[in-house]
Amino acid sequence: MRRALPIVVVLVVLLAAIAVVNPFFLEPAGFLGFLKRAAPLVILAAGQYFVIVSGEFDLSVGSLVTAEVVIAARLIDGDESATWPVLALLIVIGLLVGLVNGVVTTKLRVPSFIVTLGMLLVLTGAVFLWTGGAPRGALSEGFRMFGRGGLGPLPWSVLILLAMGAAAIWLTRTDFGRTLIAVGDNERAAALSGVRVDRAKIFAFMLSGLAAAVAAVLLGGFAGVSAQAGQGLEFSAITAVVLGGVALGGGRGSVPAALAGAFTLEALFTLLNLYGISGALESTVQGVIIIAAVAAGAVRLPWKFTPRRGDAHAAS
Amino acid sequence: MPRHKAAIAVLAALVVAGCTTDKPASTTPSTASATSAQGSGTGEQSKFFVQADFDAQLAMRSETPQGPSDKPWEQAIAPQMTGTATYKKDGPYHLCFSNAAVNNPWRQVGWKTMQAEVGLHKEIGKFTALDAEGKDDKQISDIAELQAKGCDALIVSPNTTATLTPAVTAACGKVPVIVFDRGVETDCPVTFIKPIGGYAFGADAAEFLVEKVPAGGKVLALRILPGVDVLETRWSAAKVVFDRSQSQVVGVEFTDGDAAKTKSIVSDYLQRYGKIDGVWMDSGATAVAAIEAFEDAGVPVPPINGEDQQDFLQKWKDAGLTAVAPTYPTYQWRTPIIAALKILKGEEVPKLWNLPQPKVTGENLSTYLKPNMPPLHYALCGCEDLPGYPETWGGKKS
């Protein structure tokens, strides 16, 4: 938790700033509303954490979210009885896309930046081709419940967020979590010490795909069918993770910090919105954060000289 | 510890972002209308606003269009006819079409409607269409390419007004040109086809709200993007109407056409003001999301406008809303084909072909609501009598 401290401070400052402008934010309903809105991004950030800490990127999650929402609407087409089979199918599709990303990255040795960028384009094009720019069908009430409804005062999306967050934190404490950091820190050293690097990375990509599927269910439920449902989410997720101090290139970072990073980004957007500044500036802020965070990670002041580590992860 | 440095840099980034965000807020109070107490809260008038066009469009709404009333795509408001005898030739004809894009549901519905219209006419021997995919440069080369294909007439739906003007001017010298939807800055096309326009759209919606929202009521205006002429006219007309009214516009927000963002913005306003008495929208795509924000907050949905998309019309009926739907009818995609054939047969056409622009109201809602059509289908497609309806438009037979 110590690792998450700086970002938690930033988050608290932002939340306080929101509360000053909008006192309703401090009431349970107002705060739960914020959590509900942040849930898809936080879940995506959790998935993205595993990929980034292993030294890779996943740029495909935004278009995967869009594809999942459009597929769900087309297959459910307002039919309640189709809700659960389609939900299961969405999870499978998410895992499958992650599997493909992971296998191509590790087995074919294509840089993940290219693989997932390609996947982004493939999914975007496929969605456009399939829908012709206008999604068809409709989501059932049962499907939309996850993004709209709640268990009493608690929105389902907040409960799902808690479950996903807990699972992600648990995963980092297992052997898999430690292995992943070792892989991201120094892939060759990890491989030489007997770690099955490829398997760990493929699993990380599948987690990211799973997170995208869950985020799609929440987003589709929250806002309904849209061919722009996941637009730009890949960059928001990466920004959130980087904001949480997870090093691009891998090997360093924690899930709680990544989750806090996602909440911080969402709080920042909310604050901008409250001040009547929205739209274009959001991307500017994200860009500044990514560059600043990576630059800060690269700067090493002379009096804290540490011998350079093997840079295997930087080359991959 | 690099981690601490990262945190410091992030803080610095936030501070920098904070500084830059202050500037627009203080120089343009229009966007931060929520906190400013000036006037009716609508901010400064758009630089795209042209008073004469505004007056002309508002006047056109009450004029009776000429032509068959059951085929509004053949009707014209106050047409000034122009002779086309010089273009007369024998068929079969080769029609060409340079399309700006098919990247949104409105253009999808329109494009299908146009193709079906082409299928109605045996005298069209060949129909060549190029899709510019929303890029000006591609459309410029598309128009040049089409001129080399021996077209008898060229239909253009320009991607942007100013940039495409030279390309259209060049084509005018070789073939009769028909422009529709967005215009160009030259009168060389034989005819320019469009519905009444954005001012009428924005005013239709705003006038409805002014009538339905109690005096002093809080109106939230939701726009897609700033700086796009066809959307600026809609808002600038609404601004004129709101400025004259008792309504208080508490916010003018940009949604990027994103449903989730729209819903969040409306929820924020509900939190901040407790009650919103009316919602004005510059397009209907996210109207349902805005309505759901009220439903999820457990408050009644106030008077709102959408557009003629099925999802909105369905919601309107199911929830018994107080609503109106001004339109930018997709049936205008039929007219260019009809115009091209008239021109090639030497018949007169209106120089400026203003199509009627009906609005969906509580009274005529049931005629436009078609539950068998997909949620993003536009009701005013004028396509019900065309072959392939409803399947071609994604609908189900029933």
From TrEMBL, chain A:
Q: Where in the cell is it found?
A: Cell membrane
Report TM segments. Answer: 82-101, 113-133, 153-171, 202-223, 229-250, 257-277, 283-303
Q: Which GO terms describe its molecular function?
A: transmembrane transporter activity
Topology relative to the membrane: Multi-pass membrane protein
Cross-referenced InterPro entries: ABC_transp_permease (IPR001851)
Keyword Cell membrane part of the UniProt annotation: yes
- Tell me any Pfam family this protein matches: BPD_transp_2
What's a single GO CC term here?
plasma membrane
This protein's UniProt keywords? Cell membrane, Membrane, Transmembrane, Transmembrane helix
Q: Does the keyword Transmembrane apply?
A: yes
**What CDD domains does this protein's entry cite?**
TM_PBP1_transp_AraH_like
Question: Can you say what this protein is called?
Answer: Ribose transport system permease protein
Organism of derivation: Nonomuraea wenchangensis
Automatic annotation (TrEMBL), chain B:
Q: Which PANTHER family match?
A: D-ALLOSE-BINDING PERIPLASMIC PROTEIN-RELATED
The source's domain of life comes to: Bacteria
Q: Look up keyword Ribosomal protein and say if it applies.
A: no
Family classification? Belongs to the bacterial solute-binding protein 2 family.
Q: Where is the composition biased (Low complexity)?
A: 24-37
Which parts of the sequence are annotated with region: Disordered? 22-43
**From which organism does this entry originate?**
Nonomuraea wenchangensis
Protein name according to UniProt? Ribose transport system substrate-binding protein
Q: Which UniProt keywords apply?
A: Signal
In terms of CDD domains, this protein maps to:
PBP1_ABC_sugar_binding-like
Pfam families (UniProt xref):
Peripla_BP_4
The terms under GO molecular function for this entry are: carbohydrate binding
Localization terms from the record: Cell envelope
Q: Where is the Periplasmic binding protein domain?
A: 97-348
**Single GO cellular component annotation?**
cell envelope
